[in-house]
Amino acid sequence: MTAFIFDLDGTLIDSVYAHVLAWQEALADFDVSVDAWRINRRIGMSGGMMLQALSNELNCEVRPEMAKQMEKRHSELIENFRSKCRPLRGAVALLQSLRADGIPFGIATSGNRPGIDPSLLALGIPDDTVVIEGKNSPHGKPEPDELLRCQQKLQVEPEECFVVGDAVWDLLAASRARMFSIGLLTGGYAPSELFEAGAHRVFADPAELLSSLYQLGLHS
User: Fold this and answer.
1) What does the mean pLDDT of the chain come to?
2) Strands across the sheet with 130-132, in order?
3) Among 35, 119, 173, 175, which residue's beta carbon has the most beta carbons within 10 A?
């Protein structure tokens, strides 16, 4: 049985740049100055992994306790943006189409409730939808833990899953989980970067994916 596993931020919800600004401000609160483009390249990773990557890249030490405080501050700041973040073009229609055709899907995100609840509400996600939060997985993307947990909850095999994401971290995680991956341009990555990370198909946004389901052997 075919099933879809979606990333949330940047894939279904137009929130990548909100996260960039929230992270930039959170880091600045701890006297860590980071250009926005560096943060943007890391969105999609878990907060802890992103901070570790940035500390290595900028040659500055972010101690574990400080990292926890930074993540907490980011969570507080992103709440100010959540009400302004809307579904990406075609996202709601895509999910409605999958439900109408009886194709199961789930969401695997590094975010957590209640923070992600406004996004789920905006997408019209039913309560019985499988949603894997970051806190439920030992390791965030690009590790495959979130995807594998979602796949198990959907009761399908890894080879039956289409993973849809906007960042290279989603696609690397899909490869490690032995799943078919689909990249979207909504996270700011170039098509070549998504293909190099393992994407089998790349589309502009959820609307183009919906109109191209036939390329996956499904009815659009």
Assistant:
1) 92
2) 130-132, 105-108, 3-6, 161-165, 180-184, 201-203
3) 173
